[in-house]
């Protein structure tokens, strides 16, 4: 595993362990967010801290963060696939977004510690720009995929972000105006859903001509359309406190940290199975 702080030779020897051994001695603690990449899932665990990888061979640790405050990956909260290799992870402890290129690779900081609390990530359709929902600044920021200082896009308090096929960025917020459609070129936002239909919205994905939102307090996955209509897509068991959400080819993946689980919902039948 990577060592983000100075250690003695004895300490280094004591912390050397293979990914297989680390996986064998670790268990999920607070699986907060998830991203799907073909047959594999990557799951952010806030309290481990680190990122799990789930595939045909089962669950393994992709990377483990530091247990020391203000050290890399101490409080990872959001995740998205990097367009070239590996993953991007937002970490509130270090005010950073990291690129982790491969298993057990050292996290590479990208935004010069200029993000406050990264709650959501999205990569632009041209794969050149990273968008961040910053809860501290109550804004959506962006920076180049290779790294750089973030710039303000709009003052929308995004907790979930996703692009549609037209290049518009959708954002869910905990505010009265719950869902926005953002024109990232013009840096303008339009409220689409208002009136707080969700009790505690956490994540958002876009799926063709509609989107899905997780509602932690409501124990619900909502469906919404571009004209602002909302409806309950799934409510109740097995969900207790859904947070992260990701879209697969035929499935919807929902991270529920209170259940220590990631659930896979079939988009057609809504049949559900645990994946952690």
UniProtKB/TrEMBL annotation:
Pfam family, one: SGL
Coiled-coil annotated residue ranges, if any: none
Keyword Lipoprotein: yes
UniProt superkingdom: Bacteria
Domain SMP-30/Gluconolactonase/LRE-like region: 109-192
Annotated keywords: Lipoprotein
Protein name as annotated: Lipoprotein
């Amino acid at each position: 595993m990577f060592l983000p702080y100075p250690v003695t030779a004895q300490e280094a020897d004591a912390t050397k362990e293979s990914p297989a051994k680390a996986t064998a001695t670790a268990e999920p603690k607070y699986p907060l967010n998830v991203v799907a990449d073909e047959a594999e899932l990557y799951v952010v665990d806030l309290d481990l801290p680190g990122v799990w990888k789930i595939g045909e061979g089962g669950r393994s640790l992709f990377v483990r963060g530091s247990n020391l405050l203000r050290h890399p990956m101490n409080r990872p909260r959001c995740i998205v696939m990097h367009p070239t290799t590996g993953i991007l992870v937002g970490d509130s402890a270090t005010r950073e977004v990291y690129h982790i290129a491969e298993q057990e690779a050292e996290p590479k900081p990208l935004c010069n510690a200029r993000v406050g609390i990264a709650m959501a990530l999205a990569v632009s359709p041209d794969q050149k720009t990273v968008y961040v929902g910053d809860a501290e600044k109550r804004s959506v920021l962006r920076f180049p995929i290779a790294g750089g200082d973030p710039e303000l896009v709009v003052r929308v308090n995004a907790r979930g972000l996703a692009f549609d096929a037209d290049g518009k960025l959708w954002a869910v917020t905990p505010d009265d105006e719950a869902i926005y459609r953002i024109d990232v070129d013009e840096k303008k936002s339009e409220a689409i859903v208002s009136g707080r239909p969700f009790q505690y919205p956490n994540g958002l994905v876009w799926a063709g001509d509609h989107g899905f939102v997780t509602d932690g307090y409501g124990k619900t996955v909502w469906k919404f359309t571009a004209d602002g209509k909302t409806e309950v897509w799934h409510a109740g068991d097995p969900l207790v406190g859904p947070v992260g959400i990701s879209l697969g080819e035929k499935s919807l993946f929902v991270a529920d940290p209170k259940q220590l689980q990631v659930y896979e919902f079939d988009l057609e039948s809504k049949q559900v199975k645990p994946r952690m």
